[in-house]
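Quick start: what a row looks like.
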Amino acid sequence: MAAFLYRMGRLAFRRRWTVALVWAAVLAAVGLAGMTAPEAEEEPFSMPGIESQEAFDLMEERFPGTAADGATARVVFVSSNGEKVTAGKNKEAVEAAIAELGDGAQVASIVDPYESGAVSEDGSTAYTTVTYKVDAAGLTDVGRSHLDESLKHARDSGLTVEAGGDAMQDMGGPSGTAEAIGISVAAVVLLITFGSLAAAGLPLLTALIGVGISLFAITALAGPLGLADTTSTVAIMLGLAVGIDYALFIVSRYREERANGRAAQEAVALATGTAGSAVVFAGLTVVIALAGLSVVGIPMLTEMGLGAAGAVVVGVLIALTLVPAFLGFWPNAILTRKDRKARRAGGTPRETRKVNGGTRWASFVLRRPLLVLLAAVAGLGALALPMTDLQLGMPGDEALSKETTQRRAYDALAEGFGPGFNGPLTVVVDAKGTGDPEAAAETVSERIGGTEGVVSVSPAQFNESGDTAVFSVVPTTAPTDQETKDLVNTIRGDRPGIESEAGAAFEVTGTTAMNIDVSEKVQSALVPYLLVVVGLAVTLLLVVFRSILVPLKAAAGFLLSVLASLGAVVVVFQQGHGADLLGVETTGPIMSLMPIFLVGIVFGLAMDYEVFLVSRMREAYVHGERPAQAVTSGFQHSARVVVAAALIMIAVFSGFIGDSDAMIKMIGFGLASAVLLDAFVVRMAIVPAVLALLGERAWWLPKWLDRILPRVDVEGEALTRPAGPEAEPADKDLART
């Protein structure tokens, strides 16, 4: 591996114009494809293999042409000063608003609250549901403007008018603020780390090129594949983070080799062969973790995982080819000012410092390994404790800011009709083949209506064939309450008796039931996913480090960091501690997809730092250093760069905390927390402490296993040669500074 990458780096250096033009052509090609691709028609959220999805599919089959996935806007009218919405003037204002709302070009239907009984018992609140012919993504600017204008005119009548539903969602694309914040902080960190504008700018430039290619590629594929907006958001997030980090490690190793007296071409080749090997295997672990999300069976997770994995692959390829090519264009500009002056003066390059912050920290840990290990594990364990209180769900409008009309509409409905009104259950009765479908539906309705925790049951509505009925069930509790989940489980648990009595089958669906089913599916898939991904990655690290204990230690450290980061998410987003600082106004269950998605991404990133840091220790050990010396050498060469890489990732992920999308906000916080804990606690404290305690045993591998494992030479043993000043190649480009 190291020898192959050595040759690749040298070739990219020598053929830098060709490499640069090839990547420019790739960027232009995918850019053209992305800009000319038809607009994506985002497919509705689906979850194969759960009851609520099967019931939804049955509804679409038996009720054709009803636009089951059409956008809806639930408009709430609240009277003021103790008046009733049924009073003459207020009723006229409501009916006028309904007439105006129904005139929209894309409106399929609208319900009169006075005819449907959608008025609260105290007469203070009424609501109407506007159904559109298209889904939320298909609503035009004209349709949205008509809705906004109608609401404004209704408010002018003196009524409080609010609206919720997916028709009110902001369908705008990413603002770019998060990316700008991440790039700005990354630039500062790189400038401090390298002390050179060129060295700081190169990783940023190559990362942006990689992100551009990935983003355009996803845009081009979004239409044919129906990809969600979150696919590109997550790809940008990870592509930017790993793209900067991978280039950072190549550039850092290049500067180290130049400081040791290597010529530019040789330094590039060695950097690509050694640090590039770590980049390859680090990238592989990230790809395994992200692509592994496909085994969960959730289309949305599969799209996000594969999109982000593609961005990581692009980042790896750019780090191995374009970065060496750019180093060929500016071989001396990347160096520090002192080194450039020394070279112009014909002096000897400065030697790499033997003592720095990394070696001092390593020495501290090596003197007190057990104390450091216990303190780190105890701290992460304390952070992980809130995980025992983890509640999964899919927060809706109740999680939005109180400044939004959706949240105010949610609160008004809960106050006027009860908390369960915002999350009704939908029951689908399949009476096909039944002698009396109406009697069967009535039996199911009566039995479910008599269940404890049910407020009301709506009249059943039949399809044209008269063999399928649908009715709504309003619980007494809010959609995300545990009591509502218990109610769904109770209804489903009573199914055999109810179906036997009615002679017809039924299923429970609706947004609330869907969220409950999704949470249960994610929880059941988490352990198998962990076994698959951790098993593959441990096997990969076994080949890389030729050790049994080092990969197992890496996996254990990952579990500690991911549990601690999930605990931090629970503390903020569920328990509400410090939520105000992040703009989280309402706390509640953690998004169902969050744990498994966080596990996938964090595992890949955790293995990044493991490979970068421990590969230098392994390199020193293979080249003859004692275990303790190897730990110190690894920190001497890698600690500063790992810290910079971690800070960059934290900055990139933290930028997404300001996103208005609740899922992206939560993912940004979770990833930033995980990187902070994994890089600075697990990799910087637990790893050296464990290696110090294990000594020679850390690198033990049974002889029979050593014989059958392939040798990939990540530590660059095949590239070892005496260091010393070498003649600079006679190339005009190399004279540039």
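That is the whole record. The longest strand covers residues 125-132. DSSP finds 24 helices and eleven strands in the chain.
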